[in-house]
Design a protein that fits this description.
It catalyses: Endohydrolysis of (1->4)-beta-D-xylosidic linkages in xylans. By secondary structure, this protein is α/β, with parallel strands linked by helices. The strands form 3 sheets. The chain has an 8-stranded parallel β-barrel with strand order 1-2-3-4-5-6-8-9, surrounded by 6 helices. A 5-stranded antiparallel beta sheet has the order 11-12-13-18-15, with no helix packed on it. The longest helix is centred in the middle third of the chain and has 19 residues. The N and C termini lie far apart (about 50 Å). About 50% of the residues are buried. The structure holds ligand G3I. The site of ligand G3I has 9 residues, from loops.
Length: about 500
């Protein structure tokens, strides 16, 4: 693994002197009481059919103040380090899941969904992998994926199967996997992960791919090729480690072009670092940045959720990796909400997500410059009106909408809304697909049947829907883009 300083150079080239402020912030944490925000970001996100998550390490979940703030605010958790290769298979064939299980159990005990992070990454890779003869790397990689994704089968909603595979110029990193297998390791990893956990949404996750640039263009081309070859790639993780004031103006367009391929997109590791000491102007700008990220996600139906990389400024990785920078979270080190938190709440409280469109939505972040590379044109999605069922059971309704289509295929999003006055703890949506339609991949639910009459029950993590809240599932299919008939929802 690279040293922290080497990593900082790779990310931005910033090499400022270290500051003692991080230590001051850490001390403040010990004496602070958690802030009680009026409305949790998770509740607002759920009402928009999204999640709002955080990253937690073993240290974070055992910190009672931090843990209670996280449990109150977030509905998704990504283990910060505990499911990585060095944690789960420190020596060949010897698996250790205690730390990963700790985060999984913490998340599940707080009703959160859990994101698996990650399976194949050049960093936090034990030295035994890098020391293998190249003709043994593929077997080791597949064994690792089988061991880890197999252990968490059915328990995580998604996996960052491949983490940070690209260099900044769009070439693939010359890591142990590439050296052994060439670019073929990417599809092999995804196929192996899919076999190990068929229900997990499988992602490629990377940083500096949030805007349209050489790196995201290379990923876009790779995704196109993979989908054409039937490789089980289902999502793109935009890490979103931003510098204040530098959220790319092409973020929305970039999300849209990946979504138009039929992929989920997710903001997986959001933070927005500020030169220390943080000025009031920069804290306000950070609020603008956070608001724009949230608005962009809400404007893209396939943007499934947002996750901050940590809870508060006292427990962020930023000061240790980027000396002179910090204050990157939406809570300060005393768990007090910052302008970024308020902007997040305001953006999540905005109008319900607009129907899918290729035209820039009104909630698009302001563009300061046109993207240097125009996103490829794609066929406009079908805009058939959504079908909303009458309430069933304790008030659940299902809104079925074809969100994209292409010759011979289509994509659907179904919103499940609890219009009742009490929470529901499980839901079932039934519908009848048009003749010739077949579901090829369904996410955030468990289906019975792939053609004709189909029943979809909630996944383990999204059965509970608060009064007035919503969740969603989706699928892709082959056949015409005709809407389903007989859509109904029952709840328990
Ligand atoms: O486990 C050792 C411990 O034994 C040792 O005493 C200690 C001394 O520094 O280091 C510990 O390892 C640290 C590890 O986190 C676990 O705490 C490493 O030094 C430290 O570099 C490592 O940092 C992690 C970093 O990934 C590594 O690249 C951060 O916590 C983690 O937040 C960060 O997360 C990544 C995502 O996985 C991928 N995207 C970028 C993101 C931020 O870098």
């Amino acid at each position: 693994m690279r040293s922290r300083n080497a990593r900082a150079r790779l990310w931005t080239g910033i090499g400022a002197a270290a500051t003692p402020l991080a230590a001051v912030a850490a001390l403040a944490v010990a004496v602070a009481a958690p802030a009680q925000a009026a409305t949790a970001v998770k509740t607002l996100a759920e009402a928009q059919g999204r999640y709002f998550g955080t990253a937690m390490t073993s240290g974070d979940v055992t910190n009672s103040a931090e843990s209670s703030v996280a449990a109150a605010q977030f509905d998704m958790v990504t283990p910060g380090n505990e499911m990585k290769w060095d944690a789960t298979e420190p020596s060949r064939g010897s698996f250790s899941f205690s730390r990963g299980d700790q985060i999984l159990n913490w998340g599940q005990s707080h009703g959160m969904r859990v994101r698996g992070h990650n399976l194949v990454w050049h960093s936090q890779l034990p030295s035994w992998v890098n020391s293998l003869p190249t003709n043994q790397v593929q077997a080791a990689m597949e064994s690792h994926i089988n061991g880890v994704a197999g252990h968490y089968r059915g328990k995580v909603y998604a996996w960052d199967v491949i983490n940070e595979p690209f260099n900044e110029d769009g070439s693939l990193r010359q890591d142990a996997f590439y050296k052994a297998m060439g670019s073929g390791y990417l599809a092999d990893a995804l196929r192996t992960a899919h076999a190990a956990d068929p229900d997990a949404r499988l992602y490629i996750n990377d940083y500096n791919i949030e805007g349209v640039n050489a790196k995201s263009n290379a990923l876009y081309s790779l995704a196109q090729q993979m989908l054409a070859q039937g490789v089980p790639l289902q999502g793109i993780g935009l890490e979103s480690h931003f510098i204040v004031g530098q959220v790319p103006s092409s973020l929305l367009q970039n999300m849209q072009r990946f979504a138009a391929l039929g992929l989920d997109v997710a903001v997986t590791e959001l933070d927005d670092r500020i030169p220390l000491p943080a000025s009031s102007a920069n804290l306000q700008q950070q609020g603008t940045d956070y608001g724009n990220v949230v608005k962009a996600c809400l404007a893209v139906p396939r943007c499934v959720g947002i996750s901050q990389w940590g809870v508060d400024d006292g427990h962020s990785w930023i000061p240790g990796t980027f000396p002179g920078y910090g204050a990157a979270m939406f809570y300060d080190a005393n768990y007090q909400p910052k302008p970024a938190y308020n902007a997040t709440v305001a953006a999540l409280s905005g109008p319900a997500s607009p129907p899918p469109t290729t035209a820039p939505p009104t909630t698009a972040p302001p563009t300061t410059a046109p993207p240097t590379t125009a996103p490829p044109t794609t066929a406009p999605p079908t805009t058939a009106p959504p079908t909303t069922t009458p309430p069933g059971g304790a008030g659940c309704t299902a809104t079925y909408q074809v969100t994209n289509s292409w010759p011979g295929g289509f994509q659907v999003s179904v919103a499940v809304t609890n219009g009742g006055s009490s929470a529901i703890n499980g839901w079932t949506v039934r519908f009848t697909l048009a003749s010739g339609q077949t579901i090829t991949s369904l996410w955030s639910g468990v289906n019975t049947g792939t053609s004709g009459s189909v029943t979809v029950r909630n996944a383990a993590y999204n059965g509970t829907v608060a009064a007035g809240g919503a969740t969603s599932f989706g699928f892709t299919g082959t056949g015409s883009a005709a809407p389903a008939t007989g859509v109904s929802c029952t709840s328990s």
